[in-house]
């Protein structure tokens, strides 16, 4: 029996990168997994195949995390099919390497909205069901850039720091319903949003990282699966850094 047998999870931004790895890690632990994405249909189909190859049910929805009505409908559908959603991983996020001096207002809004407002919308959508069940696990994917002073785009760092605050306040507010809220803050990984980092920034990370390498989506995802399981029952409001030692 896997750590998550009998559970149902929703992962936002599951079509590729860390989101896909989390979908598959949760499925491998026995959870039925639903995910959404906004653009990449081919990649989403591959994630769905990865989930189903674990022998569990999967759902894929082309719905942006910023589409409040669409997210509510998605949650309703999964709750109808599976009975409930036990786990939400707020993973959908975007980054953009640009100095503040060249940052447009639209850049700021896009990064803040996808990373922060998206988590707000997805969380609102699942919360009623979790409160009804008096159980739930919410895991927000933050970043080292949100907890530590480092070379990172200002809007991205601000968004990830906001998720840390979101985690803490929400954990305090809904702990009484048996719902935990935590934040996982990875350092630089070898794929995903870090793909557009200039080589000099990667090299700097490698110089400061005690393990001397970038992280992988799979190792972060395996840890995320443990964090949302019953094995992790008393951690609440925490932001856990996974960065190889920076
Ligand atoms: N990779 C790293 O080094 C690293 C480090 C620390 C934290 N993180 C965090 O990890 C999370 C995943 O990042 P990643 O590196 O895996 O990036 P990625 O490979 O670019 O994947 C981002 C995922 O989010 C989805 N997405 C983007 N906008 C969306 C929207 N509006 N609605 C729904 N889905 C949306 C994308 O799908 P579509 O494009 O199809 O919409 C994709 O599935 C992010 O929160 C990121 O900040 C990453």
What's this model, at a glance?
The protein has 246 residues and is α/β, with parallel strands linked by helices.
Based on CA atoms alone, the radius of gyration comes out at 17 Å
User: CATH-wise, what's the superfamily?
Assistant: NAD(P)-binding Rossmann-like Domain
Mean pLDDT: 97
Sheet with the most strands: spatial strand order: 3-2-1-4-5-6-7
Which ions, cofactors or small ligands are bound in this entry? Answer: NADP nicotinamide-adenine-dinucleotide phosphate
Largest sheet: 7 strands, parallel
Shape: globular
Helices and strands, in N-to-C order? EHEHEHEHEHEHHE
**Strand fraction band?**
15-25%
CATH fold group: Rossmann fold
**What would CATH call the class?**
Alpha Beta
Q: What is the level-2 CATH architecture name?
A: 3-Layer(aba) Sandwich
- The tally of strands reads 7
Low-confidence stretches: none
Helix content: 40-55%
What is the count of helical runs? Answer: 7
What separation lies between the terminal Cα atoms? 35 Å
User: How many domains comprise the coordinates?
Assistant: 1
Blueprint (SSEs and pairs):
Blueprint: E1 8-11, H1 17-28, E2 32-37, H2 41-52, E3 58-62, H3 68-82, E4 87-90, H4 105-133, E5 136-141, H5 154-174, E6 179-186, H6 199-208, H7 217-227, E7 239-242
Parallel strand pairs: 1-2, 1-4, 2-3, 4-5, 5-6, 6-7
Helix pairs in contact: 1-2, 1-7, 3-4, 4-5
Q: Please, could you describe this protein's structure?
A:
- This protein has 246 residues and is an alpha/beta fold.
- It has helices spanning 17-28, 41-52, 68-82, 105-133, 154-174, 199-208, 217-227; strands at 8-11, 32-37, 58-62, 87-90, 136-141, 179-186, 239-242.
- It has a 7-stranded parallel beta sheet with strand order 3-2-1-4-5-6-7, sandwiched between helices.
- The longest helix has 29 residues, at 105-133.
- It is globular and about 50 Å long.
- The model has no long low-confidence stretch (mean pLDDT 97).
- The structure holds NADP nicotinamide-adenine-dinucleotide phosphate (NAP).
